[in-house]
Amino acid sequence: MTDGFEPRPGDAMPASAAPPVLAVSALNQAVARLLERSFPLIWVSGEISNFTRAASGHWYFTLKDSAAQVRAVMFKGRAQYAGFVPREGDKVEVRTLVTLYAPRGDYQLNIEAIRRAGVGNLYEAFLQLKAKLEAEGLFDPARKRPIPAFARCIGIVTSLQAAALRDILTTLRRRAPHVRIVIYPTPVQGEGAALRIAQAIATAAARAECDVLLVCRGGGSMEDLWSFNDETVARTIAGCPMPVISGVGHETDFTIADFAADLRAPTPTAAAEMAAVARADWLAALEAGAGALRRALNRRLTDAAQTLDWLARRLPSPAATIAHERLKLRSVHARLGHATRIPLTRMTFALHRLQSRLNARLPDTRHARSRLDSQAHRISVQLSRRTAHARQALNGLAAQLEMLNPQRTLERGYAIVTDHKGKILRDPAELKPRTDVTLRLAAGSAQVGIASVQSVLDE
After folding, report:
1. b/e string for 202-239 if b means 16 or more Cβ within 10 A?
2. Which helix (H) or strand (E) holds 153?
3. What is the C-alpha to C-alpha distance for residues 244 and 215, in angstroms, rounded to an integer?
4. Quick one: CA dihedral 229, 230, 233, 239, positive or negative?
5. How far apart are CA 211 and CA 331, in angstroms?
6. Directed axis angle between helix 193-207 and helix 231-238, to 10°?
7. pLDDT in the model for residue 4
């Protein structure tokens, strides 16, 4: 240990100075920091061994393969989102931070996430499809439709043999026995299940007999739920004309169908609860509303009766009120006449005075108007002359232009010769035998072939 002095690079070490001495805990902490900086989060695969679940909820185990092993820990905050509890011998893949447990000096893996081995490729495919559809706006909350508060008919897309169907039917029978149920059976697992699920949803959309559609199945591994991670299923759900509730797997399971649906339920039973409000709740709400309406009406009638009595006591005699108002009107009329007569007389006198001053100050414009008319006449004459001169010049230029018009030359029997690129040919040397040229004449053009070429010198 040092006494607060640390030599800087380049400083000369005193002869008596010795290397610093580190405590074991400081050394282990420095090594732990070095490992954490050197290794970012990585995926490691191996086999579970010596698995222990502590009372605190933390998981401790050894991750091994045929040649080596390493201790690992997954704390409760991360383990609760794992979706499964690993067992001895399970092949897993973990996303981990390489670190060192300082009190014991053991190098270990601090695990952030865990999945069964082989699920990595599926998970990558899941993320890629999710990113693609999300970029297209398929998961945009703005396109999500509200679930109807009072559904008269509920459609269910699931397998007839699924335990989830029994749970849904039991829940709906208990909560809303008045709701009609239509089942669109389909396999929910195995080869071709995704296409069958999409066809069942499309059938429900085409028949349009339900107010809301449930797409459900029970829990399972990612492979078991993979039919609901299909792009066709997601697009069919998004294009369904009726609101869709997705209830696939357990609370920790997420599929592409959950993101495409208008509402995600953590379980099939929860999907049934979200689709239909319990009849008892409706009846209780109606009873509560009726009671509140009765109380509000009675209160309104009581308040109106009291207000009527209060107004009746304050209402004076109509005859006395009219007489009082007539006296007030006469007084106001007299005051108004007096108030307007004097100012009006004063303002009339001031107006006459200002009119006289204005007439005295108005300038004589007759001479200026005469000059203006004279200038306007001169401008008109000059403009007419210049216009006539410009017209004569324009006519002369038009005649010269007409004399130089190529069309007039063509009308006198001449022709313009061009090659296949439209270039005008002026020299016989530019003509080649057995080639085609275009002759432009006065009334059109002609394509001709050249048999031979003779220049003036040849003649």
Report:
1. eebbeeeebbbbbbbbbbebbebbbbbbbeebbbbbbe
2. strand 153-158
3. 7
4. positive
5. 74
6. 10
7. 41
- DSSP class of residue 84 equals S
Q: If pLDDT is split at 50, 70 and 90, which confidence band does 153 have?
A: very high
Q: How crowded is residue 432: how many other Cβ atoms within 10 Å of its Cβ?
A: 10
CA pair distance 210, 201, nearest whole angstrom:
11
The SS3 assignment for 99 reads strand
C-alpha closest to that of 165 among 139, 135, 185: 185
How many CB atoms sit inside 10 A of residue 273's CB?
20
User: Residues 413, 416, 418, CA angle at the centre, nearest 5°?
Assistant: 155
Burial of 286 (0-12, 13-18, 19+ CB in 10 A): exposed
Q: Which of 162, 203, 165, 161 is nearest to 184 (CA)?
A: 203
Q: Is 402 exposed, middle or buried, given 0-12, 13-18 or 19+ CB atoms closer than 10 A?
A: exposed
**What does the pLDDT look like over 173-200, one tens digit per residue?**
888 888 899 999 999 988 889 999 999 9
Q: How confident is the model at residue 121 (pLDDT cuts 50, 70, 90)?
A: low
On the CB side of 401, CA atoms within 13 Å amount to 6
DSSP 90: -
* Res 115 pLDDT > 90: no
- Token pair belonging to 167: 């749970």
Please name the residues in contact with 365: beta carbons below 8 A apart, sequence gap of 6 or more. none
